[in-house]
């Protein structure tokens, strides 16, 4: 029987020639793999370049990065507001504190260190309207809303009656009042010049009509309950009768 060397025995078991090496298994990605993974980079760079070019041309032509389109996020005052309040709750104002933000010169010193100059409130929500001093500042058509919660006037539209600039909603139709307040709230939330800055905590409202009667109804006011004006006039006449009897 011919002699078989140990190397020959190993060759027969493995099926490999003596000089052959076991095939290597590559776990790492090949150069081709890397090139495939990063094939999107040129496209990404091109898109990014187009965006930057669009901003640059818009700034050159319109002076704004979005072709004249104004949003809260293009408003430097709003960005400053977000940076101040992003990690802290919005403040609460009392009626007296809110009254300081009416844009009047007499209150300038009191709010000199505040980022807000003119505030309005709508059913408890305070909005910064400092971006429209010509509208809500002294001499503006809606200055009566500044420094107070005049939700009632928003509902009735009776801007010529000072008593309407209040949050007292007595005598108004609840459904119509809520719809109107919701509509105006949406307006201020979506306008790029205005934004929420807090809430106002009102003093408890005296509901006894003998002590604190509701505002006198407007002749052409919106949202008033049917018959509210007649009820108000009748109630006023009864008070006059009682008053006259007391002095007889």
Automatic annotation (TrEMBL):
Residues 106-201 form the Cytochrome b5 heme-binding domain. Pfam families: Cyt-b5. SUPFAM superfamilies: Cytochrome b5-like heme/steroid binding domain. Keywords: Membrane, Transmembrane, Transmembrane helix. Residues 1-20, 210-229 are annotated as: Disordered. The keyword Transmembrane applies. Gene3D superfamilies: Cytochrome b5-like heme/steroid binding domain. GO terms for cellular component: endomembrane system; membrane. Signal peptide: none annotated. The chain crosses the membrane at residues 46-67. Belongs to the cytochrome b5 family. MAPR subfamily. This is Cytochrome b5 heme-binding domain-containing protein.
């Amino acid at each position: 029987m011919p002699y078989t060397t140990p190397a020959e025995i190993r060759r027969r078991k493995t099926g490999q020639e003596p000089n052959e090496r076991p095939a290597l298994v590559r776990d790492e990605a090949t150069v081709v793999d890397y090139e495939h993974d990063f094939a999107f980079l040129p496209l990404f760079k091109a898109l990014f370049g187009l965006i930057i070019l669009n901003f640059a041309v818009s700034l050159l032509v319109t002076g704004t990065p979005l072709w004249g389109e104004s949003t809260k996020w293009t408003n430097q005052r709003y960005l400053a507001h977000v940076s101040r309040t992003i990690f802290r709750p919005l403040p609460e104002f009392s009626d007296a504190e809110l009254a300081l933000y009416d844009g009047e010169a007499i209150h300038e010193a009191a709010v000199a260190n505040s980022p807000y100059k003119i505030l309005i409130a709508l059913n408890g929500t305070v909005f910064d309207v400092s971006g429209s001093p010509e509208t809500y500042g002294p001499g503006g058509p809606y200055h009566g809303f500044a420094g107070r919660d005049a939700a009632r006037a928003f509902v009735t539209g009776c801007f010529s009656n000072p008593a309407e600039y209040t949050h007292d909603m007595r005598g108004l139709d609840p459904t119509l009042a809520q719809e109107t307040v919701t509509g105006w709230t949406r307006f201020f939330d979506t306008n790029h010049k205005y934004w929420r800055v807090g809430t106002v905590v009102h003093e408890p409202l005296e509901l006894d009509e003998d002590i604190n009667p509701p505002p006198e109804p407007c002749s052409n006011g919106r949202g008033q309950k049917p018959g509210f004006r007649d009820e108000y006039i009748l109630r006023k006449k009864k008070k006059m009768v009682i008053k006259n009897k007391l002095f007889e």
